[in-house]
Amino acid sequence: MSGRRLELPARLQLLADWVPRGAALVDVGTDHAYLPVWLTLEGRLRSAIACDLRSGPLSRGRGTAEHYGVLDRIKFRRCDGLAGVSPQEADTVVIAGLGGENIVSILAGAAWTADGNHTLLLQPQTRAEELRAFLCANGYAIRRERLVVDRGTMYPVLEVSAGTQNLTPGQMYGGACLIYDPLGGRYLVEQILRLQAAVAGLNRAGRPEAAQKADHMRNIMESLLELWEEWRHANGS
Ligand SMILES: C[S@@+](CC[C@H](N)C(=O)[O-])C[C@H]1O[C@@H](n2cnc3c(N)ncnc32)[C@H](O)[C@@H]1O
User: Fold this and answer.
1) What is the DSSP letter of 88?
2) Atom number in ligand 1 closest to CA 97
3) Residues with CB under 6 A from ligand 1
4) pTM surpassing 0.70?
5) Which of 103, 111, 125, 133 is the most exposed place for a label (fewest CB within 10 A)?
6) Ligand 1 centre from 29 Cα, in Å?
7) Contact, 188 vs 172, CB < 8 A?
8) For 41-75, what is each residue's pLDDT tens digit?
9) Does residue 134 contact residue 104 with C-beta atoms inside 8 Å?
10) Whole-number pLDDT of residue 2
11) Are 141 and 29 in contact, with CB atoms under 8 Å apart?
């Protein structure tokens, strides 16, 4: 042990806090490997695999592990998503800092993540609604969801496992269970503004199929406004 201390940013700290003690962890898209290194230094893992698609991030990750004296306790693998990991090697899968559509394709390529033996901790950078929709349609359930602000940007973090769940279109955009989250109101407003900008773009396009899509988005905006009222009521503001 090097005795060096590693401080995680708020986003990764929330993920680290949700990793069960004694987990067999796989961190997909590990880049600097801060998460597996921190958890290993804290003695929180049974085993750790850190994967990345590219060699540059992987060597950065190895560098972090070496710097903190835990290189021999983390396996580094170069692979696309979970293609280089077998289901028995991990009980906890973290996929953080990737776009929602990228997380979807990684999970779609590893159906074993919905076998009931795995906890998934997911943090999409973008298009969280696509991820939530995929999860509901493919045998997963969102067990908890929380928002975290890191360097001025807000991110949703989802804990997911096998199950069934139905979400309304508003919840796909506004979060599965953020009604008591102190940041929930701000998140809902951000989603409404994002949809408003998309509707304005579709209106400018002036094509019939664009008009149909804009109508659909306006309906979602109405559901988000209702959720926002619910959030205000639940949080006394
Ligand atoms: C922005 S970094 C996120 C690093 C870290 N997970 C975090 O949350 O801070 C995204 C990393 O994911 C990797 N990546 C992107 N697509 C991937 C895929 N399909 N499989 C594995 N790694 C991927 C990239 O190479 C990059 O290192």
Assistant:
1) G
2) 8
3) 12, 28-31, 51-54, 57, 80-81, 96-98, 102, 106
4) yes
5) 111
6) 3
7) no
8) 999 999 999 999 999 999 999 999 999 999 999 99
9) yes
10) 63
11) no
